[in-house]
C-alpha cells in the first residue's frame, strides 16, 4: 500500500463499485477500493454440487442464512451482528446488507431488464415522482456494452416494456419449461405475453468464465463464473490491470473534507484491529448501497456542510423506494403426476411476464400509475424440508400424493414500481451507534394507495391466469396483507437521487454531487424512480458510463 499511488477511492465492491473500479482501471487510473465486509473467493468457498439432503434442515433458511443453508452470503442478512439499524414508530422496514467482497452480486436473482423510456420519463407521463435527467437514447449504447461484458441471456421481444439490445449482444436463453409454456398459453388468452427473462447467466463461454451447465442454484455462488458476480468478473479483471488495490473489513465512517469543504478522502474503521484510519484521494466514489452511502453522507457533517455532506438540497436520505412484492400460486391439475425429466435450467424462471399496461395507462384505464411484472416459479425443484399442499394419510397412499404433486405447482411473484412519498425516508438515529461508534440509520416507511391498488390489480390478474389453467383459487387476500414489507425485496433506491438542479437533487446525471465536484455516488441511491425491474443492470450501466466521464474529466484537468 505504501507504494500504491491511487487517484480514485471507491467505497463498495458490489455492482456499482466494482464496475467503477473496472472501468477506471482499464482506462489506466489507479483505484483503491474499500469493502466493509470480509474477503470472499467464490472459486474456493462456493458450495456447488451440494444437495439439500446434505445440509441441516434439508437446506432450509434460518436467522443466520435467510436464503438457505448454502446461500453465498456469509456474514450478512436482514440483521448484521454489531451493526443495528432502527425503525421509527409504525415502521417495519427490512435492510439487507451483504457485508462481503462482491456485495449483493453474490446472491442476487440476476434478473437484468433494461429500463425503458417509460421508466426514465415517468413524471412527464403521469405527473408522479421525478424524471431522470437524461433519456433512454442517452444510455442505450451503454446498456449494450454492459450487457455484452456481463453476459446477459435473453431475446429481443419487440414489447414496449423491453427495449431491444443491439444485434449479437444477448446470449441465447435456455429452453422454457413445460409449466412455463402452459402459463404462456393461459396468459395469451388475456392478451398478455410471456417471454424469455433476461438474466446475467452465461449460456456461452466468455473470457475465462464458463457457460452454465445447470448444476447448482445460482444463489449458492458460482465458482465457474457463469452466474454473474463481481468476485468472478469485474474485480479480478480490474486487479489484472495492476491498477487496483482492495482493502476488506474497512467500515467507512465518514468522508473527509478540508477547511474549504472540498473532499480529501475517507475515514474508516479497520474491523480487524478496531482502529480508525484515514485515506486521502483526489476523487471519492460512494457505491456502498443506497442506504449505506446516504448514511455515510449524513454522518459526514462539517462547518461547510452542516446538514451532512452533499446535502444542501436536504434530499440525502429522502425519496427512499423499494420494489413492491406479492405472491400467488396454486396447484395445476394438468401437471399432476407428469413424467419426470431434467427441468433444472439456470435456477430462475426461463419465461416471465413483463408489464403490458402502457397503452392502458395512456387511455386512462388503470387506477394506479406505473407497472409490475410477474416472475414465475415452477418445475421439478430440488426437494426441501417442506411439502406443499394439503396431504393426508400415511404410508403408500401419502407417498403417492407427494409424487403426484411434485412439479405441479406454479407461483407468480409480483415485482412492481413504488413511487416516492413524504412518509418514506431514512435519517440518522440520534442515540444508537454500531459497534464501531458510527451512528446508525433510522427508517420511516409507508406504502401509498398507489402501490396498494397496483397489488390488487396484480393479484386479480394472477388469479385469472391460474384459473385459466384449471387451478382453484379461493378468496384473494387484501392488498394490505399481500404486499411485502418495506425493504423486503432488497431493491431500495433513491436516497441520493440525481436531477437537473441542485435545489431538489443530490447529484447531476453523472453521479457527481452538486456540492462537491470530486465526490460521486454510483449505487442505486441516485435513481430518481424505481421501475419494476431489478436495478442491478442499470447500476452497472450508469457506473460504467459515469466512470468513463470521470476519466475524461481527469484527462482534461477538470478533476
TrEMBL record:
Top-rank lineage group of the source organism: Bacteria
Gene3D superfamilies: FAD/NAD(P)-binding domain
Family matches, as Pfam families: GMC_oxred_C (PF05199), GMC_oxred_N (PF00732), NAD_binding_8 (PF13450)
Keyword Oxidoreductase carried by entry: yes
UniProtKB keywords: FAD, Flavoprotein, Oxidoreductase
Domain named Glucose-methanol-choline oxidoreductase N-terminal: residues: 54-322
Cofactor(s) required for function per UniProt: FAD
SUPFAM superfamilies, A to Z: FAD-linked reductases, C-terminal domain, FAD/NAD(P)-binding domain
Domain Glucose-methanol-choline oxidoreductase C-terminal, chain residue ranges per copy: 420-543
A single MF term (Gene Ontology): flavin adenine dinucleotide binding
Record family assignment: Belongs to the GMC oxidoreductase family.
Record protein name field: GMC family oxidoreductase
Source taxonomy: Bacteria, Pseudomonadati, Pseudomonadota, Gammaproteobacteria, Alteromonadales
